[in-house]
Amino acid sequence: MQPEVKIEPERGFPPGVAYIDGDFCDISEARISILDFGFLHSDATYDVVHVWRRRFFRLDRHLDRFLDNVAKLNLALPFDRETPAETLKECVRRSGHDDAYVEMICTRGTAPGYSRDPREAVNGFIAFAIPFSWVANEEQRRLGLNLFISTVNRIPSRSVDPTIKNYHWLDFIKGTFEAYEHHAETVVLVDEDANITEGPGFNLFAVTGGRVTTPGQGTLKGITRATTLELCAELGIGADECPLAADRLGAADEAFIISTAGGIMAVTRIDGIPLGDGKPGPVTARFTDLYWQKHDDPDWTTPVD
Amino acid sequence: MQPEVKIEPERGFPPGVAYIDGDFCDISEARISILDFGFLHSDATYDVVHVWRRRFFRLDRHLDRFLDNVAKLNLALPFDRETPAETLKECVRRSGHDDAYVEMICTRGTAPGYSRDPREAVNGFIAFAIPFSWVANEEQRRLGLNLFISTVNRIPSRSVDPTIKNYHWLDFIKGTFEAYEHHAETVVLVDEDANITEGPGFNLFAVTGGRVTTPGQGTLKGITRATTLELCAELGIGADECPLAADRLGAADEAFIISTAGGIMAVTRIDGIPLGDGKPGPVTARFTDLYWQKHDDPDWTTPVD
Questions:
Q1: Where is average pLDDT lowest: A136-145, A165-174, B120-129?
Q2: Does A22 touch chain B (CB under 8 A)?
Q3: Which residue from A96, A155, A192, A259 has the fewest beta carbons nearer than 10 Å?
Q4: What CATH number labels B17-131?
Q5: Where are the domains of chain B?
Q6: pTM for the whole thing?
Q7: Among candidates B23, B34, B73 on the partner chain, residue whose Cβ is nearest the Cβ of A128
Q8: CATH code of domain B138-296
């Protein structure tokens, strides 16, 4: 008997191109087997690099991290370093996007006979390019974000190494729903000692007395985070990678979140309470300006064509 | 430019039938969009029920838990309780399997315009039936398993509620690779206090002095776990749900793991060291016998047809 209720989700696919199972296709047609352990066990790693005005930003760094993480999870891809780089470029070319959000994924795959032994699985490589997207929308970027500090703990390093970029996001999702209940726009999770860790897809920096602080442990070592630390040196701003107590964040002069999906974005309220004067601050603006200037620098970028 | 190396995994699909996007299809054709947040954020919950001799075992319990977990994750499915039940039955009927492993999944899906806001996503329902599978193979079930106790911590409840069945398995995968390095067959993870939690897809019981103990916190409250506790009452065996120190497991008389995928399976070695006399024990055998007897009981089973 056919169930009465059919679920045919209205899928709002962004325009884009994917590479999966050895072929390029429209993003709306890119599908993975429901038996792939990348889905059924979230046994996968990924990386996201962005393209701005047809130039990849720090492509080498993202590829290095991705391939390191593939190895750390005992995954293997049967190609050299050039193949994923060329595949990403081809996805962007075929998409026609000048500014793009480009993701590469390695999944455990499935094993012949559907063995549960991950050593027997044939690992898969997926890539896609869709329009550049922002963690924060235009108004949020202009006014700064209202950030909720959740009591949900980020999955600790003793369970899953947060420096291996992964899809274990149920902690972030729970925190995000909490943030919405508190009329905030996004969320950051804490560790078991109530220190800030990271948010869904971003790291955080606080600015106090002209110096910046970012959590040193328990978070992804984001490429944009590393970039921001490099910008500190160029701007002559001191930086500390150390614990950042959640209950001290409200005392900072400024704060900003950073992500490949949007760069540097000001936080102007913590749990609804204005940070400093409640406006995006001057130090955040200096970082933002220099960050986007770097997108023309051939040392930091790789042309798509 | 087309990359030179094509990856076309040799997919060893088991025979089976899936229900996805409102239609039934062969399991080998069942695919989910790579943009579904069930994949990209592992934002999904699932349940597994088994069919033995064309009867579902404790189907109501599994459906109850699944629908509870859907609600707990702020997911929603546009149907009543009968629809998933009928869909699962139809998957089994179409598969032709007398003994089946039957999974139901609810994923976050995607949102129109590919919004990052989970509240805007259209949630999806997937189901599939494949041949009944066992956590342990035939030889392992006969001789008992060699279980490795990993120092990897199961993702704690403060991060992700383990009673909401989820695909966050990278901790299990890491532990599984450790187990293989130690020539063990499977793994159990500990919590931060070095108490046993659970393994990949199973709960654990220890037998000491005629009583059984199973971890009371930090694990999935498995249906087979609940079933085993009910069997305790019937067998007149005392049961404790309480912390089970990892370093005490080796002193137990017997141990067994339990899962929908295989029922009750003896553990006879811990990290290679024989438990008791190193053979499946008499208490484990009593549970196993009664467990399989219950598969004919109309109170515990639901016919497929």
A1: A136-145
A2: yes
A3: A96
A4: 3.30.470.10
A5: 17-131, 138-296
A6: 0.95
A7: B34
A8: 3.20.10.10
